[in-house]
Amino acid sequence: MPEWDPKWGPAPPPPDEGPPARFHVPAELDAPKQAARPRRPPTVDAFALGMAASTISGLFVSPGLVGGTTHLYGAGCGLVLGLGVAWFFWMGRPWAYWLVVLGSLASLIGFAVFLAPVEHTYRLASAWKVKMVADACFGVVMLIGLSRPRVRAFFRT
Fold it and tell me: The domain containing residue 132 runs over which residues?
């Protein structure tokens, strides 16, 4: 910027820079800059929403072997745990990622037991059987989606 020439008139006031600094931190003592966390992939948003929906559906679908307060107590505990894991998964916690992977594997194992000719599977309510199949399909989709590099990078940091 050129110097002010008096023939131009009175000098403009200096820019307002705010109050003077109380202290100065040398650059070598300042905290290092943290690496920016990768953005949450849309896959994580969709999976967290699907996990929440699947968890909430457990309140309305009973396996048929238990009922009444027993089902509500178990479904209520499952609701709190399931929504908690879904929240921390959405927030990017690595331990929640591994719990979701284990839950997806458990849904596939549950589907395999459902296909086995076991006496208990015949007594399950039909709505519960549909939920087991839907959870198994969602588990397969989640295992494929959770293995993507962008999703894994999101949970590493």
Answer: 42-156
